[in-house]
Amino acid sequence: MTAFLLRRLLQAAFVMLAMSVLVFLGVFAIGDPVEILVSPQADQAERARIIADLGLDRPLWEQYLHFLGNALRGDLGRSFAYNEPALRLILHRLPATLELAASAMLIALVIGLPLGLFAGLPPRTLPLRVIVLVAGLCFSLPALWLARVLLDQLPGGAGPAAAAALALLALGLPAGLAAGVLPRDLPARAIMAGSILGFSLPTFWVGLLLIMVFAVQLGWLPSTGRGATVAVLGVEWSFLTADGIAHLILPALNLALFNISLMVRLVRAGVRETMLTEFVKFARAKGLSPRRIVLVHVLKAIMIPVVTVLGLEFGQTVAFSVVTESVFAWPGVGKLIVDSIYQLDRPVIVAYLMLIVLLFILINLAVDLAYSLLDPRVRLGGRA
């Protein structure tokens, strides 16, 4: 374990150094922040003074060495736009983004894992038959009877929505009759088709749709902001209050949709592969119940790829939550980075990218440690 951690520490140092060079050169190659920070009416003397104050008059290699020396002391520079330490700006907003990403991953795990297990099981099972029967019944319900029920229950302003729903239900009669002759793995096929839809829908469009339905039409959930927060150890968290949870649901669900689809397909493939292995056949021969085989043996066997995907997707969700944070006005680092890019606020951009690199390094370390806990055959030294 000690040798593994030391080796990973050296690898992390090398990766951080290499990425610092790439990030620094890449960010400093785009535009000139002086053009944004200096007023067009400023004279040359004032312009030269601002350039000198920002350290932009020095050679690029000297700027990098200055940045690297400060970074080793935990100083990633001061924001050009806010005149505050860049790292402090990011860390102030990072908890909101981490909270959003963690909630999205939790939703993806809670929904995607059971659906993936269900879709991967053999089709000739009692739950599948029951679901197909219920689906056929729901499809076959008379539209007029449903119309009466809906009109009695829905408010008067929901007339257009009810009419649209009835038009769809009118198509359910032939579909319900056809359900009786469709293959018994229809629910699994429906789940997989839904996962493809989850991959295909643009995040911003789904976010706007969620706002229109749940915030505007139904009025169930707030559409913007973070809501009430509670400070724990000096960090504000919204999931500790009812109002904060209400504000968290829509953006987290928007981020979770893609990951639910990914989780469903990953778990389904793992279940189908594992169900054909020798140890599952041996468990059946011993007389173990199907529930125990699936929930204990099969689930444990597929957890390594699930943990891998969850870790990587968590990092990507933190890094690329810009669209969702913009749509829902979520006060995370995404909005800060968008503003910093517009303003060419180089210290904030560099600090953010370096923090994301560090986050992925820590996630990979956590995933490797989880491997050894999930499968004792996996050795951290690289031998199995």
Query: Looking at CATH, which topology of the largest domain would you report?
Result: MetI-like fold
Helicity level, as a percent range? over 70%
Written as H for each helix and E for each strand, in order along the chain, the element string is HHHHHHHHHHHEEHHHHHH
CATH homologous superfamily designation of the largest domain = MetI-like
Low-confidence stretches: 130-139, 143-148, 156-184
Distance linking N and C termini: 14 Å
The whole-angstrom Rg is 27 Å
Give the structural class: mainly alpha
| Assigned CATH class of the largest domain | Mainly Alpha
The largest sheet has its strands arranged as: 1-2
The DSSP helix count reads: 17
Roughly what is the average pLDDT, rounded to an integer?
Answer: 72
Notes on the structure:
By secondary structure, the protein is mainly alpha-helical. The protein has helices at residues 2-28, 34-37, 44-54, 60-72, 86-120, 126-140, 143-153, 159-170, 172-179, 186-200, 203-217, 242-274, 278-285, 290-319, 322-327, 333-343, 346-374, and strands at 230-232, 235-237. The protein contains 17 helices and 2 strands. The chain has a two-stranded antiparallel sheet with strand order 1-2. The longest helix is centred in the N-terminal third of the chain and has 35 residues, at 86-120. The chain is globular. The chain starts with a helix and ends in a 10-residue tail after the last helix. The model is unreliable at 130-139, 143-148 and 156-184 (pLDDT under 50). Residues 94-367 form the ABC transmembrane type-1 domain. The chain crosses the membrane at residues 12-31, 100-121, 128-147, 159-182, 194-216, 245-267, 293-312, 350-374. Belongs to the binding-protein-dependent transport system permease family.
